[in-house]
Amino acid sequence: MEFDTIAAISTPMGEGAIAIVRLSGDQAIDIADKLFRGVGGKRIKEVASHTIHYGQIIDPKTDEVAEEVMVSVMKGPKTFTKEDVIEINCHGGLVSVKRVLQLLLNNGARLAEPGEFTKRAFLNGRIDLSQAEAVMDLIRAKTDRAMNVALGQMEGRLSKLIRKLRQDILETLAHVEVNIDYPEYDDVEEMTHNLLLEKASYVKNEIEKLLRTSQQGKILRDGLSTVIVGRPNVGKSSLLNSLVQENKAIVTDIPGTTRDVIEEYVNVRGVPLRLLDTAGIRETEDIVERIGVEKSRQVLKEADLILLVLNYADDLTAEDKNLFKAVEDMDVIVIVNKTDLPQMIDMDTVHELSNKHKLVTTSLLEDRGVDELEEAIASLFFEGSIEAGDMTYVSNTRHIALLNQAMQSIEEALQAVEMGTPIDIVQIDLTRTWELLGEIIGDSVHESLIDQLFSQFCLGK
Q1: Where are the alpha helices (DSSP H) in 83-156?
Q2: How many CB atoms lie within 10 A of CB 241?
Q3: Which residue among 185, 311, 376, 443 is least crowded, i.e. fewest CB within 10 A of its CB?
Q4: Helix axes 129-140 and 397-418, enclosed angle (nearest 10)
Q5: Residue-wise pLDDT tens digits, 249-287
Q6: Pair (105, 173) in one structural domain
Q7: What is the DSSP string of 55-83?
């Protein structure tokens, strides 16, 4: 498969020590050779693959020096895209990197679309679709655990398992066809029935194993949407600052200081939290604060985890009790804060209201109880099982949806076998399972979906 030559800036825009401009395609070496002036007249066309060279980028029209660079030369197929790849390392300023890119575009390259380098790696057979998606997961990983899951998928751990399941289904379908076409034995129908039952049960069990990891995998990939709620001035913003370990939110003794939802990512024992500090939920005449309260109620409905904060130095109020009712069917950790002050809260009532929810006491002012809170968050969702490094985690929403569809299809096949349905009908369900699994790795996926997936990548990747 032949493509034109693409170029893009592969490092974040802004000032830095180094910026990289990437070039990939059949004309990559020719274009770089036209612009590069190496020490002693060195030519890019003449150097060995997988080497790096110092020199200057020249504007061929004016013969002026545009930038001082290091150029890496990697000849296909032993590259990420399986095409010839050039990476130009220049100074990390906005002007210098854009100047180099513009020269490449003026001399035969085309500006790459978002994710086009990875898309070419997929289309050229370097990686499958699940591995390509893992590249973006790796870039976006917010904890070591999330990064390890993405690395496992990028190395093909999920792909190998999916390919094995598809091969098992294919071999089963082939055996069934042989038994149907060559019915030389009286018990051929029973043999076919037993074979289908055995193989379909095996595939179902393997899909179940993958789906059991999906909740943890998705949390590691996307983060837990965690909302801090409570009445004004109970310490919600202090809790945000304590978990983030930075003063992100304004903390005062004045109720209603937080007027909007503040969002921040934080790593808690390897669990990524998308932490949302909300305006205190209370009745108020202040128009701006009222808008913040309404936003708080909205994010509450969409949360994966609720951190409900109470004030140790204040009586429980009707507002506190209403909050307990609002989150009673959700994953909640109750935090009784300000234990450095004299007790006013009725802890027996708190325990009664907390019921099945975990309860932690803290003094954020004195930095007490934060470790216990972090441990409660980690154990609530993972219970230690995430440490199993040899497990194949499913974290991608698209993969989870396809696995659920494949599970439904294989269950229908099993039901059909047990009911004595004609074999050709059972084959339809098995074939559908095979196709759905193929969509995960890109063996049977529509071109428009591929375009949509790669459009979500960053430019230059």
Answers
A1: 94-106, 116-123, 129-140, 144-154
A2: 19
A3: 185
A4: 140
A5: 333 343 443 434 467 778 887 778 888 766 544 444 444
A6: no
A7: EEEEETTTTEEEEEEEEEEE-TTSSSSSS
Q: Is the peptide bond before 342 cis (omega within 30 degrees of 0)?
A: no
- β-partners of residue 8 are 22
Residue 169 belongs to what domain range?
Answer: 140-213+394-442
Q: What would you report as the CA-atom Rg of the chain, rounded to the nearest whole angstrom?
A: 29
Tell whether 340 and 427 lie within a shared domain.
Answer: no
Cα separation of 317 and 28, whole Å? 69
pLDDT digit string, tens, across residues 297-319: 666 777 788 899 999 999 988 88
121 located within any domain? no
Average pLDDT value over all residues in the chain: 81
Residue 455 falls within a domain, yes or no?
Answer: no
CB neighbour list of residue 177: distance below 8 Å, 6 or more residues apart = none
Same domain, 240 and 372: yes
Residues 198 and 250 in one domain: no
Q: What is the CATH number of the domain that holds 433?
A: 1.20.120.430
User: Are 344 and 325 contained in the same domain?
Assistant: yes
Task: Give the number of domains in the chain.
Answer: 3
Instruction: Note whether residue 360 is domain-resident.
Output: yes
pLDDT digits (tens, 9 = 90+) for 110-161: 999 988 998 999 989 898 888 888 887 787 777 777 777 778 888 888 899 9
Residues 332-351: tens digit of each pLDDT: 899 999 999 999 999 998 89
Same domain, 315 and 239: yes
Strand 358-361 to strand 6-9: parallel, antiparallel, or no bridges (unpaired)? unpaired
Q: Residue 19 corresponds to which amino acid?
A: A
Give yes or no for residue 32 having a pLDDT over 90: yes
Which residues is 219 bridged to in the sheet?
A: none
| 383's tokens | 């219970």
- CATH number for the domain including 15? 3.30.1360.120
> Do residue 242 and residue 340 come from a single domain?
yes
As a whole number of angstroms, the distance between CA 239 and CA 375 comes to 15
Angle at 244 between CA 242 and CA 249, to 5 degrees: 75
- Total-model pTM: 0.68
Range 208-231 average pLDDT:
81
Whether 197 shows a pLDDT value over 80: the answer reads yes
